[in-house]
Amino acid sequence: MRLDVVTIFPEYLEPLNVSLVGKARARGQLDVHVRDLRQWTYDRHNTVDDTPYGGGPGMVMKTEPWGDALDDALADGYEGGAHGPALVVPTPSGRPFTQELAVELSERPWLIFTPARYEGIDRRVMDEYATRMPVYEVSIGDYVLAGGEAAVLVITEAVARLLPGVLGNAASHQDDSFAPGAMANLLEGPVYTKPPEWRGRDIPDVLLSGHHGKIARWRRDEALRRTVRNRPDLIERTDPAAFDKKDREM
Ligand code: ADE
């Protein structure tokens, strides 16, 4: 997968060299290009923003630097359709970033991120590129960050771990919280490892029983309990048919 990020803070994206994403890059599974938006400014002050039409507080990012930067990013390798790029615009006004959207993005060969500062990017930039590629305006949560760069790191990490061969054990994202399947809409329950006793605390007996059916049932019960406590909205959103008799006895 190819990733382009256009930003006025390229150094903010340095974590893309670390850990899972960094290793995927080193192995050639991710081809990452971080570009400094100010390279596409032509005035003495490298201006990327201006006052909003219609008045109001804050500044708006200008069309021309974004347009020129995106055209250059596209110039090497642009193809339309399913093999072409998608634009990902982090914004608190976007659609919520979910595991489902992470899966959708992970199936695209090329993502171009446009993290903005200030009050956001002039609308015409998104409208212009939407004629050539899918544009995803995405929010990572109901809070306002100072800019979209941290959101790019979040989205990239969630997407990269879904790419074939990136995670050591492919099964390890099958029972993630929010993963499709039997545990859809349930949060993952608690996990334990050795030693079996620590500071007088034991691990649940069932995990030592070797009884796979009982362990699966226990995991589901714990997931249900945690979801009821932390995310009752997820239970309410779930089709009642997804719960079996034992779920209801909990
Ligand atoms: N930029 C500022 N706040 C954001 C958010 N919550 N999600 C994505 N991008 C943002």
Automatic annotation (TrEMBL):
It comes from the Bacteria. It is an enzyme of class 2 (transferase). S-adenosyl-L-methionine binds at I140, G141, D142, Y143, V144, L145. Residues 1-236 form the tRNA methyltransferase TRMD/TRM10-type domain. Keywords: Cytoplasm, Methyltransferase, S-adenosyl-L-methionine, Transferase, tRNA processing. Pfam families: tRNA_m1G_MT. It is found in: Cytoplasm. SUPFAM superfamilies: alpha/beta knot (SSF75217). It catalyses: guanosine(37) in tRNA + S-adenosyl-L-methionine = N(1)-methylguanosine(37) in tRNA + S-adenosyl-L-homocysteine + H(+). Homodimer. NCBIfam families: PRK00026.1, trmD. Specifically methylates guanosine-37 in various tRNAs. Belongs to the RNA methyltransferase TrmD family. This is tRNA (guanine-N(1)-)-methyltransferase. It comes from Streptomyces cavernicola.
